[in-house]
Amino acid sequence: MTKKEKAIYIMEELEKLYPETPIPLDHSDAYTLLIAVLLSAQCTDERVNKITPLLFAKARTPETMIRLSIEEIQAIIRPCGLSPKKAYAIWTLSNMILDLHSGEVPNSFEALEALPGVGHKTASVVMSQAFGHPAFPVDTHIHRLMIRWGLTSGKNVEQTEKDAKSLFPKEKWNKLHLQIIFYGRSHSPARSPKKDIDYITAHIGTKKALLELK
Predict the structure, then answer these.
(1) pTM over 0.90
(2) Is 45 marked active-site?
């Protein structure tokens, strides 16, 4: 089975499993999404969703966020980990959004990645989920599954993103990256010593298997 054939099969199966793809991080606009994604670095979405209501009750716009001190922000977000760096980034990027972008989250990769604490993955999530721009954010689930499915060499996340974009149709990227994340969390855990429940991996090895399953 070629990589393109695998990609087609994977898209079809994921669409059956996850026809709807709600955004895992609770938010109300581009700014609250940006903050939630920043907080999700090395932290679960579930924990972020418990902390952001506390933070957003005090500040949910750049204007109100800069009225808090970095120490106040840090105290609220401490359970998310890396709180000193994240608090500094949140306060500083809020100032930059006000000073450089008239209080609105910028809708370009270049401008987003110029904000402190915002890397390419975070910018990709905001561009895709807040602005509807085609993007393919690669998290640990996507990186691991793309390797497992034989769709990338797995050298680094940059290569994985490049390979994903070459294999999957552009109009599918925004939904598909969420579908793969959902699948990775529920069907293909990183560690499954007793039972491997990754049935996609079990059936993409040969063209015969692809035909039998359709």
Answers:
(1) no
(2) no
